């Protein structure tokens, strides 16, 4: 072979520079998303007891669904349980920053909202929290995407996104799908 | 080759490998632990210290968003909460169980098998399920003219004991020749559910090895009339002590025919 | 060939038998998910099948393939008998016992928890103990591999360990690190719960421990394929390895960067923080490096072969390669799939984009393409390359082998490309039946059917593969001396290499540093934030 050891080393080094450059470009793109667009994965380490979830606090049955707090922050709370979401439909306004909070009383679940970047695992013991802005109106499908038992395939909910003008919470700051 | 030469050959590898890996770690820590959270927190009006604590996981919440508040004041649908201690006591038989059970035999039968099919069989039922229902009667989460006053006289340890007692009893035996041939769509509902209605298979909670919710009762060998009545009660929300509407949401999707046939199925099948 | 021959045959036959069964199950699962009515479909049957498919492909096929191939390499690349053959056989028997326990519990309906260990859903303890036995068998293998290399080094002081063996030991060392996470999860959390000693479990901790194993395990499966890329493919093509040093560096990079990166499986989890997710994400980005280096080095090695065979011009050498040889063909097809799969992987690792695809069919498609495609097609090629040396027989024509490889490649592309698309549309994972009455989901139907067709092609290929293996046992005998050597020589074979490229002491220290930085606090936090435990949900009917 005519290729000298030096030449091989040089070519490998050149390629290593290309590899380093490729990885750098990827890292810069991710840093850009984090710093400029404030993209974070859902990671608030907030504990909640799955055994008493239904007894007290924000994840009791009557407290679930969408509500607006005194500061105007819109939060939808949902429980993922074997094998349904409670409530099975949440109402949210389009083009406004909303917070989704999930908890599980039993096993691991997870959700995504089709056609959006909303995605989180729901791990018993922790509150999962996602911040997003829905830009499309209509009924979006929100399936459970982690195996949670034999009824997993039939576990999904609806996210009903309405134009901002049609989003009218009641006197106590709550908005439910059925109320429309 | 002398050992010293070998060491000369190796040293740059050691040095550079350590430097590169150390550098990558330092870069990631500076960016991930400091730069990103501080910049994000600045945009959301969160002070740098809090933002860093949130990013690292010392404080709950996101470095880029204010935490929502909650002023929840809702009545729970049941007062029962499972703990590992409670579940352990529900697997240990006591002498008290048979004594308390004396008060149950008139309606639920000597060995937990009711003579009147309006009443549920208790024999072989899960202790956890019996415990929850008795407890719910006692606290008013579930109401029944006969059961509520009875449950209110029972102490916590009596409820536990009697639950374990009936769970240990043998189930009603069925004559396999009387088992009805059930409609295919009902078997489908039991084994596969109905995707179009978001109905999970009954089996996914009530099956023998389903791994569903803790308090799930077993249904096979249960009385037909009792089962149908409870499904209807869940459907019109006159019974609402199921945690997170698990049974209310399921039964709301069932037709009258399906309720009757499912009750029939579970009352006459030997499986599940 | 002495001991290792029968040992290798036993391991590989077990691996490929599990593979064949798992292929049948996989096709049935595709059928169940499609709009067509599938036979025998119940929720229980579907998830039992998914569990069996996952366990067979991810634990049985891989572990026994890696072990069998490792024994083979230790004897052939080092040219000395395998040390501790009795322990190797004992480990094999322990592994078989473990597999049998898993099979009995899965098909007995007491282990429908899929192949990932995500409590509170908890199977029969014997399911987990069976899988622990499989891992224990692989630990014995790791010890034998390390002992084989140490013995050779004692006899050959100062000489570089042959690349194939160096890579095998890199895999063994990596596997010892890798299994720490899942072993801790099983021994301290899941198995006590499965026996009923604990009724509660810290789910966040169990997911974190499992993630420790979850990425590096994939590299454990992958490394035999990379060994074939570096040593067998250039040899089969009639060329030489472009750079021996790059080969060593690649396997070292796998050892280092496959471990402190598992948290990229937890990007969407609430129990880990942004900062540590970022840390592990940037280390994940570096895992691209060994793969990109391999693409270059192997392409260059192939170019040497092509030009030696008279190939001219910028791309003429490609046409000049001996594509009729299964190893060369498989390498080409594997690279093609690696290109797509690797690109998809870059999207998975970006923690912003991950939200688009996490737990969708995209992920299923990704690991089927990378593992089922790139890795398994090289398992086929390895089998075709070494089987004549195991049985002393080879079929007269290699056509059936080439057809099998092409079918596998086509089937895998037809299976996974629609899956990737459906994942982007939001089709989620691990579902037995879809609601095709929903108009959005109804539009997915035709693509699911295309995937199903891909599955059928794969099944045909798997059947042909088993038939081809049987041919090696009944075809005409060949003299062992007539067989070509398996491992390529480098263009400039190294006379000596630095200790860093001839052993793993330095790299183990660096792995330790990285693991402490990446996983130290994320695991420790479980002990001071004291997340409330979740109640165990048993699926074995004992609860």
Describe the model.
- The complex is a heterotrimer of chains A (180), B (272) and C (543).
- Chain A has 180 residues and is an alpha+beta fold.
- Chain A folds into two domains: 1-39; 50-179, Immunoglobulin-like (Sandwich).
- Chain A is 17% helix and 31% strand.
- Chain A contains one helix and eleven strands, in the order H-E-E-E-E-E-E-E-E-E-E-E.
- In chain A, strand 2 and strand 3 (84-86) form a beta hairpin.
- Chain A starts with a helix and ends in a 5-residue tail after the last strand.
- In chain B, helix 1 crosses helix 2, helix 6 (127-139) crosses helix 7 and helix 6 runs antiparallel to helix 8.
- Chain B is elongated.
- Helix content of chain B is 53%, strand content 0%.
- By secondary structure, chain C is an all-alpha fold.
- Chain C has one domain (3-538): Up-down Bundle (Cytochrome C Oxidase, Chain A), CATH 1.20.210.10.
- Chain C contains 16 helices and four strands.
- Chain C has helices at 3-33, 43-78, 85-107, 125-155, 163-194, 203-214, 216-236, 244-257, 274-308, 313-320, 326-349, 354-357, 361-391, 399-424, 439-474, 505-529; strands spanning 121-122, 200-201, 534-535, 537-538.
- In chain C, the strands form two sheets. A two-stranded parallel sheet of chain C has the order 1-4.
- In chain C, helix 1 runs antiparallel to helix 15.
- The chains are: A alpha+beta (180), B mainly alpha (272), C mainly alpha (543).
- Chains in contact: A-B, A-C, B-C.
- The interface between B and C is large, with 47 and 53 residues.
């Amino acid at each position: 072979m005519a290729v000298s050891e030096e030449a091989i080393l040089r070519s490998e080094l050149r390629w290593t520079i290309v590899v380093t450059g490729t990885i750098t470009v990827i890292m810069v793109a991710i840093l850009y998303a984090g710093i400029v667009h404030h993209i974070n994965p859902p990671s608030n380490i907030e504990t909640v007891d799955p055994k008493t979830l239904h007894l007290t606090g924000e994840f009791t049955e009557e407290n679930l669904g969408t509500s607006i707090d005194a500061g105007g922050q819109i939060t939808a709370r949902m429980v993922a349980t074997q094998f349904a979401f409670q409530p099975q439909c949440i109402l949210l306004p389009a083009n406004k920053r909303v917070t989704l909070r999930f908890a599980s009383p039993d096993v691991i679940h997870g959700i995504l909202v089709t056609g959006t970047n909303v995605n989180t695992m729901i791990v018993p013991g922790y509150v999962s929290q996602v911040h997003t802005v829905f830009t499309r109106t209509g009924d979006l499908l929100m399936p459970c995407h982690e195996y949670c038992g034999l009824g997993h395939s039939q576990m999904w909910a609806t996210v009903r996104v309405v134009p901002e003008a049609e989003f009218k919470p009641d006197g106590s700051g709550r908005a439910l799908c059925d109320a429309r | 080759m002398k050992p010293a030469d070998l060491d000369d050959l190796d040293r740059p590898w050691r040095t550079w490998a350590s430097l590169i890996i150390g550098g990558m770690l330092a870069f990631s820590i500076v960016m991930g632990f400091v730069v990103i959270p501080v910049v994000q927190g600045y945009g959301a009006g969160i002070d740098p210290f809090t933002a860093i604590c949130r990013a690292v996981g010392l404080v709950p919440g996101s470095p880029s968003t204010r935490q929502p508040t909650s002023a929840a004041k809702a009545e729970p649908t049941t007062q029962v909460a499972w703990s590992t201690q409670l579940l352990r006591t529900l697997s240990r038989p006591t002498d008290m169980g048979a004594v308390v059970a004396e008060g149950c035999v008139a309606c639920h039968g000597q060995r937990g098998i009711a003579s009147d099919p309006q009443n549920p069989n208790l024999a072989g039922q899960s202790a956890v399920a019996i415990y929850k229902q008795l407890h719910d009667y006692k606290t008013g989460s579930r109401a029944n003219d006969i059961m509520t006053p009875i449950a209110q006289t029972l102490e916590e340890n009596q409820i536990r004991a009697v639950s374990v007692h009936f769970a240990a009893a043998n189930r009603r035996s069925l004559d396999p020749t009387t088992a009805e041939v059930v409609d295919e769509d009902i078997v489908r509902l039991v084994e596969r559910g109905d995707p179009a209605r978001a109905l999970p298979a009954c089996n996914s909670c009530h099956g023998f090895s389903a791994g569903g919710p803790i308090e799930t009762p077993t249904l096979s060998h249960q009385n037909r009339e009792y089962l149908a009545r409870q499904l209807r009660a869940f459907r019109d929300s006159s019974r609402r002590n199921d945690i997170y509407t698990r049974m209310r949401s399921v039964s709301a999707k069932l037709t009258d025919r399906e309720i009757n046939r499912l009750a029939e199925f579970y009352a006459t099948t030997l499986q599940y | 060939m002495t001991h290792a021959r029968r040992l290798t045959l036993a391991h590989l036959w077990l691996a490929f038998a599990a593979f064949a069964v798992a292929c049948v199950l996989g096709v049935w699962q595709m059928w169940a998910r499609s709009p067509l009515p599938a036979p025998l479909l119940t929720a229980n049957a579907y998830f039992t099948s998914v569990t069996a498919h996952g366990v067979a492909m991810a634990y049985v096929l891989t572990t026994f393939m890696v072990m069998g191939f490792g024994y083979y390499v230790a004897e052939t690349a080092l040219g000395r008998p395998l040390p501790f053959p009795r322990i190797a056989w004992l480990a094999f028997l322990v592994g078989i016992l473990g597999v049998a326990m898993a099979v009995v519990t899965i098909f007995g309906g007491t282990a429908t928890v899929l192949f990932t260990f995500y409590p509170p859903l908890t199977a029969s303890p014997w399911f987990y103990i069976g899988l622990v036995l499989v891992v224990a068998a692989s630990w014995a293998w790791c010890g034998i591999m390390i002992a084989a290399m140490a013995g050779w080094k004692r006899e050959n002081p100062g000489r570089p360990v042959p690349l194939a063996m160096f890579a095998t030991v890199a895999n063994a060392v990596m596997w010892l690190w890798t299994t720490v996470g899942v072993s801790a999860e099983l021994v301290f959390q899941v198995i006590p719960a499965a026996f009923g000693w604990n009724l509660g479990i810290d789910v966040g901790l169990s997911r974190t421990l499992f993630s420790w194993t979850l990425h590096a395990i994939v590299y454990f499966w992958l490394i035999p394929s990379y060994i074939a890329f570096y040593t067998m493919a250039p040899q089969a093509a009639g060329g030489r390895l472009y750079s021996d040093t790059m080969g060593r560096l690649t396997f070292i990079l796998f050892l280092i960067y496959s471990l402190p990166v598992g948290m990229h499986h937890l990007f969407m989890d609430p129990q880990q923080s942004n900062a540590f997710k970022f840390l592990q994400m940037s280390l994940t980005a570096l895992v691209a490096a060994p793969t990109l280096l391999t693409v270059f080095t192997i392409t260059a090695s192939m170019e040497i072969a092509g030009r030696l065979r008279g190939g001219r011009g910028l791309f003429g050498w490609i046409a000049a390669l001996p594509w009729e040889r299964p190893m060369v063909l498989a390498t080409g097809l594997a690279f093609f799939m690696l290109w797509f799969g690797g690109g998809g992987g870059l999207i998975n690792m970006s923690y912003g984009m991950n939200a688009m695809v996490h737990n969708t069919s995209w992920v299923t498609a990704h690991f089927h393409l990378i593992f089922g495609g790139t890795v398994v097609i090289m398992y086929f090629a390895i089998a075709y390359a070494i089987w004549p040396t195991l049985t002393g027989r080879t079929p007269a024509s290699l056509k059936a082998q080439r057809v099998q490889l092409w079918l596998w490649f086509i089937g895998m592309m037809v299976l996974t490309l629609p899956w990737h698309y459906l994942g982007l549309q939001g089709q989620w994972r691990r579902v037995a039946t879809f609601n095709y009455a929903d108009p959005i989901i109804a539009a997915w139907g035709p693509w699911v059917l295309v995937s199903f067709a891909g599955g059928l092609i794969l099944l045909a290929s798997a059947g042909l593969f088993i038939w081809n293996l049987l041919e090696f046992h009944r075809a005409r005998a060949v003299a062992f001396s007539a067989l070509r050597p398996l491992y390529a020589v480098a263009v400039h074979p190294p006379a000596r290499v630095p200790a860093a490229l001839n052993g793993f002491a330095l790299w183990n220290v660096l792995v330790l540093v990285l693991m402490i930085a990446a996983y130290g606090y994320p695991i420790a936090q479980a002990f001071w934030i004291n997340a409330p435990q979740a109640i165990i949900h048993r699926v074995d009917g004992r609860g």
